[in-house]
Amino acid sequence: MRIAAVDTPPANLDVEVLAVPVAAGAPLEAAAADLDGRLDGRLSEVAASDHRGRLHEVLAFPPGEALAARRVLLYGLGRIEELDGQRLRYAHHEMVRKARRLGYRRLAVLASPPLAPDDLSAVVEGSVMGSWERRSRQTSEPMMPLEELLLSGFGEGRQEEVERAQQLGEATNRTREWQNLPPNELTPEGLTRIARQIGERHGLEFDVLGPEELQAGGFELLLGVGSGSDLAPRLVRLQHRGALIGGGRSDVRLAMVGKGVTFDAGGLSIKTAEQMRTMKGDMAGAACVVGLMQALAGRKANVDVLGAIGLVE
User: Fold this and answer.
1) Residues 6+ apart with CB under 8 A from 53
2) pLDDT tens-digit readout, 58-97
């Protein structure tokens, strides 16, 4: 998906959909108010009657010939006092998914209060997350893929920020894909293999401790949890030597630890069928660490980071 910040006036954006943010109980301001004037008040009329600005609320309507865009899409941000980065990501995730369900490929997002230029990263991350669709086991027709996302009113010269946020969104999507894999495939060895491939591809230092090394190192808890399975536990470490990229040394070293129980039947207290249904996701912490290490390496982050994941079934 191509993502770019543009300086084209909103009314002249030649896209299928122009997405306009609306907060619950708040009037249209700035760029949205200007659009409303071009549409002879239709925007504020729709916002007041058919759209309440609630989080995840999305409504599309044709603007006629007043705009170059084929449709205007109002999407809710919720209450202003509750608005934060996570809610912004969620709002744009839902907005993009709605646009895809309607069959749109080219979309522009308008920066208009309370959505500000400083929110660019959250907008991009959420939009990229909304472009994700689990397809590894699906037989139904996929939704329309989003091909282009234009950011209007967020300022010029911000492509590096856009690309950085896009990388984080894509890293999140990869993590979601791993988390959704069936546990008979994503075993401790399966996630070890993914981590090794990422390490080789991105120049990360990789090493893994098997049962013998874990025993010698005194990792009794990891061995104990994994003793209920025929599949051997692993401790995987990925290292990103980012300080060397900048030609220097770092006095700060970050470490991240991810829980990687690839399936949890409950041990001594066997879980019920309903509780066990989601236990393939008990490795989400480990998946997050692997995804973040890949993102750090991909953007050549100038920091030293160690990622460690304990993998057991």
Assistant:
1) 22, 23, 24, 25, 26, 47, 76, 77, 78
2) 999 999 899 999 999 999 999 999 999 999 999 999 999 9
Length of the chain: 313
Cβ contacts of 281 within 8 Å, gap of 6 or more: 179
d(CA 290, CA 171): 9
What single DSSP character describes residue 142? P
* Domains of the chain, earliest start first: 2-178 (3.40.220.10), 183-312 (3.40.630.10)
Residues 60, 63, 68, 72, Cα dihedral to 10°: -20
The amino acid that residue 207 corresponds to is D
The 10s digit of each residue's pLDDT in 122-162 is 999 999 999 998 766 777 777 788 999 999 999 989 999 99
d(CA 46, CA 44): 5
